[in-house]
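Sanity check

After download, print the first record. It should look like this:
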Amino acid sequence: MHIIIREAELKDCKRMMELIKELAVFEKEPEAVTVKFDHFVESGFGHNPAWKALVAEVGDTDENPNHTWIAGFALYYTRYSTWKGKRLYLEDLIVTEKLRGKGLGKLLFNKLLERAKQQGFTGITWQVLNWNEPAIQFYNKYHASFDEGWLNGNINF
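Expected structure tokens:
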């Protein structure tokens, strides 16, 4: 298997949305994905992009070297903490189920760490569901810390 970690491109959005829906099923909330495709695309590639992403493009070099597909991605944006400064916020790190455990998540996360350090961020912040043990174990390999006592708030329009 040949893996390339690269910047997401407009053409990747359809596959990224498929992976977002796959993640929602995994997280037992398939109906929670309400973002429309056009909004997703505009938010990443429009005049005022709100997010960026790295994709893991996979190819089977032995079978068909010209056939590649997006097997995962890390979608992120800049946030600012009055306590910590400019932080990179990792919204989602997604690897398709059939390729989990093959190192794609590690490649994506390592590239994101590298990018955050190069761009002067003071760290990376993200959320993980408290029952998602594989993800928690993954982040623990990076000596991540998890906040206690914080509740996530939101208002939907």
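If your output differs, re-run the checksum step. Summary of this record's structure: The chain has a mean pLDDT of 93.
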